């Protein structure tokens, strides 16, 4: 449904160039919710605006529902954009219009007849639970209700694709949960393909089927959420399941074990201890439901070094678990007096 290839966007100002999106590839299958996670300045918002050509990329392809948007212009591009809805972080509602008037606005722009427009607005307000607020103005409703108006407005043209630009970052946790639940419900009921950007791990955990981590305009990892969680060294796994930093003691091995689905119900720790007569120390762990599946991570300490524990590690992997050995951080090198060259380089960085 969404196919992005080698997307690149460069901003130029005062003789400088800043590459906001640097050769990104992205595929979102029909009916999936895909989250792009990253800090401010990572390029997430620019990427999203390139999808509907609010920002025109410098290179690459943007294919939505089989149509290359960069090959379209004029009326053809406007028609293609009608199939793409967008939810904004700060709602973007018209203060002089009622809730119903805000939802009706894109339908007016499209030239939808009044009777059809009224029926569609009523349908959408019912869909997002705002029927009783149809005559209210934005100043009279809560932040969560404003975002529901924004969602209803984004759905006015019956889009197949919904883009969400930090839709919950201005909301409190309880309201965020209700908006995410609404988005997941709309995704399932309407078959919407959703591409959302966020800096909140909880958003990915609650509703995303797949995700990518973005840094400095590039994806550092991408794929189905459950696969990323089981991937050794995954940034997403560390973010969703933060475990305390541990330095392995002499004569021991510290491992992080990730388990998904049916493996969460297996007593693999006790099975390991019995099979190899080991004293297994549980240092930390968590189990969550993500993407409809139970996913967990445990930090375990085993006696002996990794080589001596090879059979035990193989036992865990053969049980369908992802195992990552935690190695000690390298010892810091002794401080030394800076040379003239290093002092000059340091001054250049400053």
UniProtKB/TrEMBL annotation:
Under Gene3D superfamilies, the record lists: 3.30.70.260, P-loop containing nucleotide triphosphate hydrolases
One example of the protein's molecular function in GO is: ATP binding
Its source organism is Actinomadura rubrisoli
User: What InterPro entries does this protein's entry cite?
Assistant: AAA+_ATPase, ABC_transporter-like_ATP-bd, ABC_transporter-like_CS, ACT-like_dom_sf, MetN_ABC, MetN_ABC_transporter-like, NIL_domain, P-loop_NTPase
For this protein's source organism, the top of the classification is: Bacteria, Bacillati, Actinomycetota, Actinomycetes, Streptosporangiales
Record's superkingdom? Bacteria
Family matches, as Pfam families? ABC_tran (PF00005), NIL (PF09383)
Protein's name according to its UniProt entry: ATP-binding cassette domain-containing protein
Q: Report keywords, A-Z.
A: Amino-acid transport, ATP-binding, Cell membrane, Membrane, Nucleotide-binding, Translocase, Transport
Q: Where is the ABC transporter domain?
A: 2-241
On whether Cell membrane is a keyword of this UniProt record, the answer is: yes
Stretch list, region Disordered:
326-350
A single Gene Ontology biological process assigned to it is: amino acid transport
